[in-house]
Batch of 4 targets.
Target 1
Amino acid sequence: MGDVLNRLQEAVIAGEPEQARELTAQALEAGIAPLDAIDQALNPGMQIVGDRYECGDYFIPDLMMAAEAMKAAMEKLEPELLARQEQRQILGTVVIGTVDGDIHEIGKSLVATMLSAAGFQVHDLGVSVPADRFVEQVKETGVSGDSVPVVVGLSALLTTTMRNQEAVIKALQEAGLREGVKVIIGGAPANPEWAETIGADAYAENANEAVEVVKQLLEV
Ligand code: HCB
């Protein structure tokens, strides 16, 4: 089990999508749980990639290839994660996206997948999402009679874009929608203090914590 996960981590670090896809399939065939593959191979692999970029050993193309490898692995894991949620009882609705100016999508997509697997209806708005698009989706979600209450998930990976998490909260306030929703933020530069500063309801360090926090916020 350790060997295939080690090789999967190496495939992410080396930016090899085909290998990552193949090794993920092997891991699943060997009975490794999708969450173990994420926690023990993919996330640590991306962490190493980030460290190498930070110290100048890796460059943007390396980051992009590592991200492609992680995405290839996630494409195999997502159906498995969702399949494990057999009887779907909709616990609430989540509108999630990476904020304006920020194209980092892996963490946001992982949170979206985990919430979906846990029984939430998830509207994933994608990356670089303007504040008014979140507002529009929250309005639409309410109007279309989707399950309520609604949680808004805001991802930001850059110190320059984390301000836009606050911009979304302000836009929700201006539209008179803030009282009706819970806001959870995440992403590498965010932390609980930042959540408090910008008036978010909660912060989550990772996708598992996001699921727990959203459940707590909605009391489900
Ligand atoms: Co990017 N990048 N990047 N990047 N990138 C980071 C984020 C740096 C930290 C790297 C570094 O310098 N050490 C850095 C940011 C520095 C800073 O602002 N302090 C950085 C930079 C500078 C940049 C560019 C500006 C580089 C450039 O062009 N000069 C550029 C920005 C482009 C833009 O957004 N406008 C850029 C581009 C890229 C790509 C495109 C090459 C690629 C993204 C590809 C993609 O997503 N499709 C990329 C990547 C891959 C990274 C690193 C290496 C990994 C990010 C990642 O996917 N992590 C990252 C370094 C790092 O974080 N160690 C680096 C894995 C996921 C699973 O973790 O933290 O995203 P996560 O998500 C977690 C967690 O935060 C939480 O749960 C998730 C799952 O566990 N969470 C939430 C996330 N969102 C949540 C929302 C919630 O509501 C709740 C919880």
Target 2
Amino acid sequence: MTYLVTGGAGFIGANFVKYVLAKHPDIRLVILDALTYAGNIGTIADELKDPRVKFVKGDIVDSEVVAKIFSENEIDFVVNFAAESHVDRSIENPQLFLETNILGAQNLLENAKKAWSKGKDESGYPLYREGVKFLQVSTDEVYGSLGETGYFTETTPLDPRSPYSASKAGADMIVTAYSETYKMPVNITRCSNNYGPYHFPEKLIPLIIKNILEGKKLPVYGDGTNVRDWLYVEDHCKAIDTVLLHGRPGQVYNVGGHNEMKNIDIVRLTIATVRRLTEENPEYRKALKTAPENINDNLITFVKDRLGHDKRYAIDPAKITAELGWQPETRFADGIVKTIRWYLENQDWVDEVTSGEYMKYYEKMYANR
Ligand code: NAD
Ligand code: TYD
């Protein structure tokens, strides 16, 4: 099988590349990534030495680039991770999110349709090469925001509220349109918030870890009571691979681990864990750019809230568990320690990905909060 993995140099895409190469010895991968600020080729440097892997630097919106990939490789699966993924950036520049996330998905679908269709049936629907599939990696954010109770299921109406989630919902709708109109074999997975290695430090958990190590303030939006449902990234990768191989065409699968946490609790737990790990292990103290006694809750600062800040996300993953037997394997208590250890051991990676425009971004985004 040959997978086209878009966004394979980003957080989840890179974890997926590592996961499937280890899991399936006989696959081939073509990775398409534009290497935006969020993509880092160094993250997949070892994988790029693997003869099973090809890398193409390019934009998913560019029809020529995508058509060339399909003409030069017999692609069986498209797994579309490539996206602009940060809500705060979408508030600053919505248009880029619509271009990449919606037009990019449509361009991939169109090229896949052309490459995969072999004639038509008597009603005029395209017929497809056996075994092909397009998987759109979506998010629970397309369902909007929950109150104190309830869960998102696959039948919850789409109700996106940020430019990011609106663009992801738009992509989901065009994927569904290709499934209905052209009978293209597709799946959509909608996962809750991921955490783990290679997470870019603009998102809550890696940003907090980075700031703690530098003794910088930890910006908590609003009153810190917003709730996210956290899943270890490898569990998400496993879910995607399972849906790709076994999901019923045309179906949506929610992915989540029943792990709701308030932001403020995540921040407090992260502080306590960094403090404990650096106290226990002298090697980890090398990652500190501040005195160990500075690592305490006084670093927390409540800042101006995000515009349109969704209150609560919570996924009901019953369908993927019942139909495909998927279950999360990493408990949050273990996953957060694994993640923090990874950052303590991989400060070179953090320095590399934050050496570009990151500081400018940080100053601009947090200056007037
Ligand atoms: P990320 O921002 O870390 O990575 C995105 C990758 O896409 C980067 O490598 C970037 O260079 C690449 N990219 C961006 N624009 C591109 C373009 N026009 N052409 C080609 N490549 C491009 O994102 P992530 O957190 O790894 O998320 C991956 C996918 O999973 C996204 O579609 C996101 O919506 C979805 N998702 C993320 C989460 C989460 O918690 N991070 C949860 C659910 C779903
Ligand atoms: P984030 O990691 O950006 O993911 P998403 O917005 O897609 O859920 O944010 C997770 C939560 O943390 C969200 O409620 C916003 C909040 N947050 C902060 O309080 N401070 C921060 O500096 C960031 C980046 C996020």
Target 3
Amino acid sequence: MLYSPEPPPAPAVTIDGEVFDLYIPSAQIAARVDELGKQLERDYAGKTPVVIGVLNGAAVFLADLIRAAESLDMELDFYRLSSYGDKKISSGEIRKLKDVDISLVGRDVIVVEDVIDSGLSVKYIRDDVARRNPKSLRFCALLYKEGVAQLDFEIDYIGFKIPKQFVIGYGLDIAEKKRNLKSIYRLRG
Ligand code: IMP
Ligand code: MG
């Protein structure tokens, strides 16, 4: 009889008694981030966009994304927002903990988010950036939870559309932990 071993169990991460299963492996993330970077290089060729990362969650994605768009002539800045506290459900209240420093007047602006869930953060940022009279404004999100946010504008670049669920890793946290996982994991259950 041919011996066929059981496939190894998909890796899981446990934190505070909650189990998260491997969801988007690092290699798949890398491939998709590369595509997004190439798309930005094409779409912004000859321009000098201001790329704005939304801290803390987008830091990991942003770092890979801008290097996937190496030929792009760009400037980098950051917002830091807080809406989640320590919970898995948005508090619904956005606070700006760090503002963008570069003037955005007449600039091509690309806002980079880790994930769009309720859409509250991205709406807040859109209003905030629009008040600064940029020449153009586009959004890039690694993850987009389908059917949750009611937005009256487009998210121009999306890495992966996913169903509504709680995910961690690759910048995404649970109570500030696990941002440093290379892959994305989803809450079991
Ligand atoms: P929104 O304002 O509800 O769209 O959520 C935006 C922010 O909440 C994201 O930028 C994340 O920082 C955080 N967030 C939303 N969903 C998740 C998740 O599944 N895991 C970790 N953080 C999340
Ligand atoms: Mg975030």
Target 4
Amino acid sequence: MAGLLHGDRIGNWIDGRRVDPANGEWLESVDPSVGKAWIRVPGGDAQDVDHAVAAAKAAFSGSWRSMPATQRAGLLRAAAVEIGKHAEELATIECRDNGKPLAEAIAGDLPSVVEMMNYWAGAADKIHGETIEIGPTSHNFVRHEPLGVVGIIVPWNSPLAILAAKVGAALAAGNCVVLKPAEQAAASILTIAACFDAAGFPHGVVNVVSGLGEVVGDALVRHPDVRKIAMTGSTETARRISERAAPTLKQLAFELGGKSPNIVFADADLELAVPGASTSAVFTGGAGQTCVAGSRLLVHASIYDDFLERVERHVAMHVRLGNALDRQTTMGPIAFAAQYEKVKSYVELGRKEGAEIAFGGRFGPENFDGREEAEALAGGYFVSPTLFRGATNDMRVCREEIFGPVTCAIPFHDDDEALAIANDTHYGLAAGVWTRDLKRAHRFVRDLEAGAVWVNAYRRIHWAAPFGGYKESGYGRDSGLESLRGYQQTKTAWIDLS
Ligand code: NAD
């Protein structure tokens, strides 16, 4: 099977064609496992955004808007097949770009991208309106129509999986899309775009423009023909987008950051809670670069010391740091140099604030003493799994999103205190609760201020279940039928019967 990626650079995807950026500028994308550039992607600007939005607008008012929904569903199904055919190549591109372990991308991310397309194919031709009984003089009915052109902006940590949830829903609802990947990891999204056209989508329905957030992202946000921006990223960027989208009154949906509590009670099944706390989200493949990372580990004081020792043993036994493309690797590097420096600075900050490193706190080559590949990995952005003990919730390391493999363990003494600490954050994305007590589990599900609560589990995410945040973790939902409404507008029709 022919590969999708050829040569050492990949252009934008606009109107069914691979095109160079209009300004001729390219950005280098660095392989974080080795710290070297591996591909160039467009450093585009507003000209490319104008081109892509015009193509999307033309496609929308061309054949796409009037295409029977069942045909649209068939195209989404065909896209699933096309993506499935190239899954390994897409996974490899993504892992090279952002350092996620290949084994995880092949077993998790790519199969879920395929399933999301199938899920949304199933929904595309089940979009129904309603009739409303008004009285004998009027016939009233409601249509759920697409918005038109939707801009989708995604981050670098899991580009394809995050993209697929939004794109699947947007296309199923009948919109055309312009996608803006993160400048640090754009290659997998630039590549996957061709799969939609290969599956038979009319040209211009799916477009990708790569470039800096402040340039390409901003042009998309301000564009008068873009009716909605669905963005996953940081809370700071979402604030900026909100301001700049105001003049054109765009709809907005945001999936943002978190500082999620993972709460372990004394009655928890420790056989589950130890791996749950150690490998779920923070010390896994993406090296804690996941929005739902359980980065505040709240542990009942009576088991605090023992629990942290068990977590340390588990991490030592199960986490293997290494090149993302090595299938033995269970935890990859930090995705790019600036983020690596940020994580390092937070580890330093934690020490200064008075937390104590229980384990970890090693960087780069320090992690590879005695390993054969030490020389090759010396330039990589590696941080060992790091746990702070004796942390308190007022420390900045407990309040700010670090987005790296760093967890702060905070002791608590009773349920009320656990709940108060858990909710004492401006974020509200996710939370975990480990207990055998059913009443306690239900109380915490009810009272935790978070968009997702896992009981005796962590980081379960599925395309059929709504996903999104409370408070400053965002609004709007990805996944599940609920998210479809976010890509539609409602029209009420009145027919006079008098
Ligand atoms: P970021 O906010 O810096 O960038 C996200 C995207 O926004 C990128 O494509 C970027 O180019 C673009 N962007 C930046 N400035 C822009 C502007 N002015 N206008 C338009 N677009 C702009 O975030 P990041 O550092 O790439 O990603 C990490 C963040 O994403 C973390 O906060 C993490 O928690 C969050 N995240 C959330 C979820 C979720 O589902 N809730 C999932 C993954 C990551």
